[in-house]
Here is the input.
Amino acid sequence: MSNKYNINFMKKGLLKRLQHKRSGNYVSLNRASVVGFIIDAENKGVGEAVGYLISELEKRSIKFKGFCINDSKRPIVHSSIISSPHITSLYRGNTFRNGIPFTHITDPFLKTKFDILIDLSWPVRSFTAEYILRSANASSAIGIEPYTEDKYDIIITQPEETEEISQKELIENIIRLLTTIN
Here is the structure.
């Protein structure tokens, strides 16, 4: 068997053992006190989207923590991401060879209890993003289709006949949705 096959087999086993720490409670953005989000630094427009999300959360006096995953060997620099002390950036140099992040990098994010966790690591999710999502402690989780397994309490879909929406438009739609929940 190849070494890559063994690593992939080990990753699948690890993900199966991780327990979701969600209660499945729907929390309105108006009642949330702490929001977490996971983003992929390589997605187009992520800097603008994160800047918008941060400004919306700050307007509402909501505490937040973000986890930015970058699968390249060097950190990707987005001013809205690196300017916030509440966002942890993870790049390939901060993970073990199998993709599991070093605990000193993930602990501040994973030990926080979130009212809402927003997963923006789409359209392709890395093992590291999946690991963080499954390990995070959140009352409710929001994700993007096509990840329709029971990872989320709310799934955002996009009509097939429209063009793919931008990261910022996605954040705007999520905020609009979360303010309508009672």
Remarks:
- The first helix runs from residue 3 to 17.
